[in-house]
Amino acid sequence: MKAELRKARRWLHAAEHICVVSHTSPDGDAVGSMLGLTWALRAAGKRVSPVLPDDVPATFAFLPGSAEVTQEAPADADLLVALDTADIERLGSLGRQLDRPIDINIDHHVSNSRFGSINLVASDTAATAEHLVELLQPFSLALDEQVANCLLTGLVTDSLGFRTDSTGSATLATAQKLMQHGGRLHEIYERTLHRRSFEAIKLWGQALGTARCEDGLAWTQVTLEGKAEIGYTANGDADVVSQLTAIEGAEVAVVFVERPDAEVKISWRAVSGLDVAAIAQHFGGGGHRAAAGANMHGTTLAQAERMVLRRTRAALQQYRQNGSGR
């Protein structure tokens, strides 16, 4: 890792124009990490272009630089950095648009496929943002208020407000460090984990109204028709999946989100300790033990639900038979 760090530092400081990218349906860690690194590199005098395959969700529009994010990679960038992306397919249309490999891959997903020329993956951190805080000093990059607020957003959202089992004492120490450099924890928590648009709340009503829970498995659907009916235009599920984990007795929650062109996005959350990343990998996805996702193509909601629930039930049963992972 030390050799990789030294090489990454050389490449970052030698580059003139750096393109920083992250995954489809960007969450707080994707947006926060991307913008945090963007501001740190700009403070070092670099020209940086932040690029996402999808729009920045309105929830994260308060972050500095969010309005500058584009959906097209600049042709003249001489260094490509991918953040919070487990594999190249997670870049979606952006990955197909790139005419060269990723130079530096920085991530924290245990399922990361090491698709970069340099791979800096720390699966023991709660968020890619936490890993980036560790990398700033080796990269000779400064931590200022803009960087701190972006990275704290990634840390808070990916740890679900410091509630995931990946949250350790080092995670809390990192949050404290970011706050000492100007990170506004109360504002970030309010904007990202508490406040929701009216349309998102209506989507919750739709999805939770048709939710089912059987033998520790909770699930529901988000349909294109339902989203159009209430005017919800974002690609995701408004974090419905996290609401399902609040159900008493639910060990695993799954949400199926219908997308155009026969695509279905699946999100898993585990409360019990079941490794849902392993389930997601079976469907071409990945993630963390407690939170994972996948995109299925050429299928209907009913078909995707049938296949995914069968696999998830089997994994949950096996997990229980093995003594809950002990």
Please describe what this structure looks like.
With 326 residues, the protein is of the alpha/beta class. It has a 6-stranded mixed β-sheet. Strands 2-1-3-4-5 form a 5-stranded parallel β-sheet, covered by helices on one side. It has helices spanning 2-14, 28-43, 92-97, 128-136, 145-158, 169-180, 185-194, 198-209, 224-230, 240-244, 276-282, 301-321, and strands at 17-21, 47-51, 79-83, 104-107, 118-121, 212-214, 217-222, 252-259, 263-270, 286-287, 291-297. It is built from 12 helices and 11 strands. It has 2 domains: 2-194, Alpha-Beta Complex (inorganic pyrophosphatase (n-terminal core)), CATH 3.90.1640; 198-321, Diaminopimelate Epimerase, Chain A, domain 1 (Roll). β8 and β9 (263-270) form a beta hairpin. The mean pLDDT is 94.
Write the layout of secondary structure elements.
Blueprint (H helix, E strand, L loop, with lengths): L1 H13 L2 E5 L6 H16 L3 E5 L27 E5 L8 H6 L6 E4 L10 E4 L6 H9 L8 H14 L10 H12 L4 H10 L3 H12 L2 E3 L2 E6 L1 H7 L9 H5 L7 E8 L3 E8 L5 H7 L3 E2 L3 E7 L3 H21 L5
Helix pairs in contact: 2-4, 2-5, 4-5, 5-6, 5-7
